[in-house]
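User: Hello, can you help with two protein structures?

Assistant: Certainly.
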Amino acid sequence: MLPEQVETLRSLLLSPDEANAQLGRALLQGQGLSPELFFADEISALEEAFQTQQSFDDWLIQTTRFSRIAAKDMAWGTLPPSLLRLRSVTYLRLENCQIKQLPADFGAFAALKWLHLNQNQLTELPLSFGQLALLKFCVLSENKLKKLPPTFAHLQNLQLLSLSNNQLKHFPEELLALPQLTSLNFLGNAIRSFPNTLRPLQKLEKLYLFNNQLRRFPEAVTTLSSLQELDLSHNKITKIPGNIGQLRCLQSLQIHSNRLTQLSAAIGQLPVLRVLDVSFNQLTTLPAILESMTSLKRLFLSYNAFKQVPEVLFAMPQLELIMLSGNRLPAASVEALRAALPHTEINF
């Protein structure tokens, strides 16, 4: 297929006229490609996923003008060599392609801004990964990574990084050199230790540590002055530190499914907290200071050890939702709470 033919095919596929789009799909099937098509509002380009590496290689030779490439559910093992010819690609999504190793010269994708390599079998990243100087969004979820290369610290434009469902045991200190980070996702790793401070990450707004191996609340997190969302659920945390009040921008705290026996009064120092989820812990009481948290709207208390409705709840009409299911509470006390807070949804 000549470049002019590829451009014509692309125009047909992107046509708002369904007849033209059907013609484009028919022509594409005539090439034996059977693609998946992806579209995005911000970039009007075509992405295609092929069933065989050979058809992918053949097609790539003709598509050096495309800025977005995606492939899914391929049995590759390694990247097609021809892929590295596409130096102008800004968006690369290779999902569930059984990729075990990236080539040493992977950094040749110098124009990349969006990279998705989720659901592969990567155990390490090449040193050249640090040459992706324009990279802003990087998804490496569901691989087998245990660490990051030291050159990862060179990704000075990186804003979003997802390393969920890998095999990390420690917070990667290479990330402390990335001041533009706004979102970090470590869901489903085995992280058990943190550096003493995360202060260099002053733009970080979202941190997800769901389902790791944390036995203590990582106090380094309290140095994140811009943090808005924090998820520490499904760990083994027994106590919230008194300096949590330093998180003045925190709006959502998810710490359900841990081993909390009491809730620190320092929670009341979070002036803009809107969502607090402490479900599936061992709480029996709540601190009275919660009454002063006028920004708090959604409070999740399910499956704790409450035997009476906490008295402070009666003085919190600002709440839109209270979840109390899974506690052994007298029905009369729950009804009294509903009467005191007629505009609050109370689930018991």
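That covers the first. Now for the second protein you mentioned:
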Amino acid sequence: MLSTGHASHRNLIRYTTLAMGLSPFSPSILPRLLLLLLILATPTWSWSQDVQHLRFVESSIEWQGELQTAITRYSNPSGQTVDLIAAIHIGDANYYQALNDYFRELDFLLFELVADEEMLLAANSELDDRSALGFLQRMLAEFLELEFQLTGINYRASNFRHADLSASELQELMAEKDESFFSMFIEFATAQIAAERQALANDSLAPSTLSLATLVTALSTDNQSQALKYLLAQELGRTGGLVLSREIESELTILGDRNRVAMEVLQQTLSEDVEHIGLFYGAAHMPGLERALQELGFTRGPQQWLPAWTIR
């Protein structure tokens, strides 16, 4: 049964988008669904330059540039450090190799993966996401000539620790909230467009260049893969500073509940008196995880950027 609290927040998303003239079947939704295959695009309600975990660096050459993800360090008064490592789920092979090298320097790497215990304990076998979303991500990775995260990251490393819901736990929570993957993704996309319209009205966000028209143009070029990759990277970087409110995030299972589990595992790991921990999650999770870290007394330190897609 859907609780009153769940209904009120989900209705807030739905009514806001409808009031702005958006429909789940609007043509403007379709390009956004492509983004959902790359990184969990979420409804966003404010803009902040201070919490950017994903950015796009333009090149002076047409259809070229670089999509980058951030590693942001946080420390507490006891001297423990936690690195928030933003992930994008398909990327260059060199990007995942650089992450693998970085992970070896950590005491523990806490990672996201909605998977049951059998999948996590399968010795000597490659982790495989057989969900519909995983299949679509693999198809898109192949078209864009990129690598899938589950293939590129070495999840068998001895310092890796699972910090996410199991598949069965996720299904139970979604049932309690009367969610389905289809309805959730449509609400994410429509709410994001509604929030962007508000940000554009306040002159706090540059207009999007991603549309059906620009997608058609990209697919008409000699190098379709590069042109489409450029458009998607540009859009992902453009929205890299959008932040989800605490209230909306808490009601979205795919974000709030998974962040809650991640922080529970992090606090348990911190209690083991380790010095350096990494938290490797999709970039859309970063604002909520950062907020939770700050509530635990951590302060933000230096940030470094890794090239996830080098488009040339």
